[in-house]
Structures are given as C-alpha cells and as structure tokens.
C-alpha cells in the first residue's frame, strides 16, 4: 500500500513538472517528462508493484533467485571449460604434435628442410606505402 502511494505521488509530481515545462514552451521536453512520470502510475495500475513487493519480501523467491544464479554459474563455467578444451584440441593433434590442415605442404609439417629463403622485394612494400601516402595527402594529413 505504501509503494502504491509513493508511486502515485511521484507520478503526480512528474506531471506537475511537465506542466511547468510546457508553460515555458518546451513542449518536447514536457512530453518526455510526462512519459517518464506516467511509468510509476502504470506499474501500480498493472499490479507490477504489488507483485514486486510480494517477491522482494518472500524467502521462497530469494531461494529461487539463488537457484537460478547457481544454474547460470554452472552453465557459464562448463562453457568456459568446453572452449578451453576445444582450443587445446585445435593446437595439438592426437599424438601431441601440432595439428595442420590435411592439404598442408611438407615444410609446415616440420618434415622438410629449410632452404634459402627469398628476400622480400622492397619495391612492393614501397608501392603499398605510396598508396597510403596518396590517401593521406588527399585528406590533408
């Protein structure tokens, strides 16, 4: 009963503030304040406040919230463990060796020898940067 009275008083005060704001010709703001002011009154009229007050002081409801929290904790921890195991299986194969794609070449499997590596061309890198420089100059940076 007290919660309904407080919600009604808050709504009445909000509607009063909305009326004053509308008097000052700030109609958009007044409409927004009126909308916020009508929410507590709507909650009282639908019975949500009575239900919430009954739930807040009910030990059975709090035990139910605790059980839901425990279920959520179990669910999220099992998902985390499942993701860790899936990540571990992707990085290592059956025999503990790193797993690779079935169509991988021999050097990626570690069976091949390293030969002389080709040096990267500097011209290609300069071309990439010239495009970036042109874009930056275009925007004045």
Topology:
Elements lengths: L1 H22 L3 H20 L1 H9 L2 H33 L14 H4 L12 H17 L3
Structural description of this entry:
The chain contains 6 helices and no strands. By secondary structure, it is an all-alpha fold. The protein is flat, with a radius of gyration of 33 Å. It starts with a helix and ends with a helix.
Write a short abstract of this structure.
This protein has helices at residues 2-23, 27-46, 48-56, 59-91, 106-109, 122-138. Helix content is 74%, strand content 0%.
Major sheet characteristics: none
* Portion in helices: over 70%
In DSSP terms (H or I, runs of 4 or more residues), the helix count works out at 6
Tell me the overall shape.
Answer: flat
The succession of helices and strands, N to C, reads HHHHHH
Overall pLDDT score: 81
Tell me how many strands there are. 0
Give the helix/strand class.
Answer: mainly alpha
- Which spans of ≥5 residues are poorly predicted at pLDDT below 50? none
Whole-angstrom Rg: 33 Å
Amount of beta strand: under 5%
Q: What is the end-to-end distance?
A: 66 Å
Describe the structure using short key phrases.
141 residues, mainly alpha, flat
């Amino acid at each position: 009963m007290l919660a309904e009275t407080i919600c009604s008083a808050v709504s009445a005060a909000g509607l009063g503030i909305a009326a004053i704001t509308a008097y000052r010709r700030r109609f958009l703001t007044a409409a927004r304040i009126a909308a916020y002011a009508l929410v507590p009154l709507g909650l009282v009229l639908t019975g949500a406040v009575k239900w919430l007050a009954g739930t807040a002081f009910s030990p059975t409801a709090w035990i139910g919230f605790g059980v839901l929290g425990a279920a959520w904790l179990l669910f999220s921890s099992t998902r985390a463990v499942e993701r860790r195991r899936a990540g571990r299986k992707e990085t290592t194969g059956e025999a503990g060796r790193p797993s690779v794609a079935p169509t991988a070449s021999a050097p990626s499997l570690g069976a091949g020898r390293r030969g002389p590596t080709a040096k990267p061309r500097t011209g290609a890198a300069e071309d990439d940067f010239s495009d970036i420089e042109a874009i930056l100059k275009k925007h004045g940076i």
